[in-house]
Design goal:
alpha/beta, TIM Barrel, 2 domains, eight-stranded parallel barrel, four-stranded antiparallel sheet, 7 helices, 16 strands, elongated
Length: 327
């Protein structure tokens, strides 16, 4: 399984993606939903760090596609065929449309293959048909597909889901893409801001925190009604200081909440208690979850930490991963 990042809005943050993309990872984007992505893809492939790229040529909010889209599909497919020839060692995958409801996708996949014979053609259904002749791709909470397929968190924030369960479920996927709403300029999956007005693009630390999720979370346990969110919600642009950093939500109002290593060293100390809207209390942490995990590894060779509340051990958390409950 090859890991990748689905930079669907890539033209809006090309410089960031070019700087942050990890060595040997795949990447993906929309061809023109957030502006013409061709030059951005060219720049990313030019780093030499991205050996595998998947592009969705078209997107429709209604998931509706048809024959009227064929001229655009042909034109875009030709352009990505030329880019593939420029970077011959890169595996270039082309999906004619993302999350379709088409009953006969092979008709359109054949057209893309005619225009881009050097590329791998990928079928990405929503409620539409899977292909028996071409590679398929599934998203979000959808189940694994038969045969060789790609998986993407697209539509479901990877930092709020059960990452370990998802990695196990899709362990035989060919490419496994991480996705967060910020990749599409959204604060969260419920953000309805019109596409032209979106500004909540990803940050360097958010991308690094997503990359970190390919690691093992380790053994975690929390009491009932305790929630460890590895990424607190973001509410503004630029992000407020606590955005994307961990927040603990639990019933007791405590004086001191710590993450502690096995040798007794304190990894991090939480902020003072703040009310939560369901009667519990929130405790924010001073640094990004993946950085706390890296500190824990330096101290005791594993990413997990004891959760100590007013001197009493209450559980074990993996700071970079959500724990307790999942969306």
């Amino acid at each position: 399984m090859l890991y990748g990042i689905d930079y669907l809005g890539l033209p809006k943050y090309t410089d960031l993606a070019v700087r942050e993309h990890p060595e040997g990872w795949a990447a993906g984007c929309f061809a023109n939903t957030f502006g013409n992505a061709l030059s951005a893809v060219d720049r990313l492939l030019g780093t030499g760090r991205c050996p595998h790229f998947r592009v969705h040529l078209l997107w429709s909010d209604a998931h509706l596609f048809g024959d009227a889209d064929i001229p655009t599909i042909r034109q875009l497919a030709r352009k990505y065929e030329l880019l593939k020839r420029k970077y011959n060692s890169v595996v270039m995958e082309i999906s004619p449309f993302c999350e379709h409801n088409v009953s006969n996708p092979d008709k359109y996949l054949d057209i893309v293959k005619q225009e881009a014979p050097s590329c791998i053609i990928v079928n990405t259904p929503w409620k539409g048909a899977v292909s028996r002749r071409y590679k398929n791709e599934t998203h979000g909470t959808h189940k694994p597909l038969a045969g060789n397929y790609n998986y993407s968190w697209d539509g479901t924030s990877c930092v709020d889901g059960d990452v370990e369960a998802s990695k196990a479920l899709h362990a035989r996927s060919d490419v496994y893409f991480w996705w967060h709403p910020a990749m599409n300029g959204r604060l969260n999956t419920n953000d309805k801001t019109p596409r032209p007005e979106r500004k909540a693009w990803p940050t360097s630390d958010l991308i690094d925190s997503m990359i970190y999720l390919h690691n093992s979370a380790g053994s975690v346990k929390l009491p009932r009604n305790y929630l460890w969110k590895s990424h607190a919600d973001r509410h503004s642009t630029p992000p407020e200081p606590r955005a994307y950093k961990p927040v603990l939500i639990m019933p007791p109002k405590a004086r001191r909440v710590e993450l502690v290593a096995d040798n007794g060293q304190v990894v991090a100390l939480a902020s003072a208690a703040a009310p939560f809207n369901d009667g519990r209390f929130r405790y924010y942490w001073p640094d990004f979850g993946y950085k706390l995990a890296e500190k824990a590894i330096r101290i005791h060779n594993k990413p997990t930490c004891k959760l100590v509340v007013d001197g009493k051990e209450m559980g074990i958390v993996s700071p970079a991963f959500r724990g307790g409950s999942f969306r």
